[in-house]
Write a structure and sequence with these properties.
The chain has 363 residues and is an alpha/beta fold. The chain is built from twelve helices and 13 strands. It is 41% helix and 15% strand.
Length: 363
């Protein structure tokens, strides 16, 4: 739903003959620079709280809003320290015993990710979560714990450190699992792990979350994810509940090195993406050859609504991220629907054979 207009908001924050709009503007100007492009957003946040107060919602509704805002603001502040470090969220059963092969596999995964300067995010509990953090070490770990009266306690790697965040609400915690993830690795687990797997797939398939690598990790010879993928193909794909290309959103591996390498490869050329009005922009580490661009315009034409794939430099609308201005861009009018095909396009972009050699460098 689009943001409400200032006129609409102003009509709904007048009480007892007093127009609060001007006072809200004064308050916002007191706490932040008036030239900030975020000023209108914070103004609308203040208006939302005032409208809540005017309606005098019940105490439970008010406490939900307050707790949610507190948890999110605290998480934003803590995670700002790690803003430009890539992070991998690892899911899996908290009940996996230390002697199980999957525990050793998750520990090896954490170590492999840390060697690549990737931080490991887990729910901070035991089992797979403890193993991944153990392998990564505290400096390369982030724990997003849930406050419960039983069971869940932070593992020794992040417990008692400033690399641990605690949440009251599951939905806020789940938001940060996805928001902070540059990749996701899912190990075998129970209802919670399956819930996370399907939610992540749904968010990326529908474009509600940016495209990132999703790796399904099982022990050699394991059938947990093989059986899950078989169900998806026979029941979801064959019945046309999903597109065949949607299956490209996940990759199955059976060792920690391949899991980490899959993430490495995804970011070998692709850097990040964003929407600029009606155009989808993929930032890259390397310029593509003219031949690669021609191939894309023939083989991936189904991804754009009009025009063509175009390479371009940073435009004025992207100046809010100065540290990324030097990266070349691939820009097109994306249909916003076929994210499995977008993953295929990303694989093509990451193929070194499609990169243009830097000036002065020849094969």
């Amino acid at each position: 739903m689009p943001f409400e207009t200032d006129d609409y908001l102003s009509r709904h924050i007048k009480t007892s003959g007093a127009d609060l709009s001007g006072k809200i503007d004064e308050l916002a100007a007191l706490v932040m620079h008036t030239a900030s492009q975020n000023l209108p957003l914070y103004r609308e946040m203040l208006v939302t709280v005032i409208r809540m107060a005017q309606a005098d919602r019940n105490r439970w509704d008010a406490k939900i809003l307050l707790q949610t805002m507190r948890e999110m603001e605290n998480a934003f502040a803590v995670l700002e320290r790690f803003k430009r470090r890539r992070k991998v969220t690892v899911f899996g059963s908290a009940r996996t015993p230390v002697e199980h092969p999957l525990y050793a596999l998750a520990r090896e995964l954490g170590a492999n990710l840390a060697r690549r300067d990737l931080m490991v995010i887990t729910g901070a509990g035991g089992g797979i979560m403890a193993a991944a953090h153990e392998g990564a070490g505290t400096d390369n770990s982030l724990g997003l714990n849930i406050t419960l009266p039983f069971e869940q306690h932070a593992n020794p790697t992040v417990g008692g450190t400033d690399h641990l965040l605690s949440f009251h609400f599951f939905f806020v915690r789940k938001l940060f699992f996805i928001k902070e993830a540059d990749a996701l690795v899912l190990c075998p687990g129970g209802f919670g792990t399956l819930d996370e797997a399907l939610e992540v797939l749904t968010l990326i398939q529908t474009g509600k979350s940016p495209l990132v690598p999703i790796v399904l990790l099982d022990e050699p010879g394991g059938t947990f994810w093989k059986d899950a993928l078989s169900f998806m193909r026979h029941q979801l794909q064959d019945n046309r509940y999903i597109l065949p290309s949607d299956m490209h959103l996940v990759r199955l591996v059976d060792n920690a090195e391949d899991a980490a390498a899959e993430i490495d490869t995804f970011y070998s050329n692709f850097h990040s993406s964003r929407w600029l009005k009606d155009r989808f922009v993929m930032r890259m580490n390397h310029v593509l050859t003219d031949a690669a661009l021609d191939h894309m315009n023939r083989e991936f034409a189904d991804l754009y609504l009009q025009g063509r794939f175009e390479q371009q430099a940073c435009c004025e609308m992207e100046l809010d991220e100065p540290e990324l201005q030097q990266l070349p861009r691939l820009s097109f009018v994306f249909n916003g629907r076929d994210h499995g095909r977008l993953r295929e396009l990303t694989d093509f972009i990451n193929d070194k054979r499609n990169w243009a050699a830097p000036l002065g460098v020849q094969d």
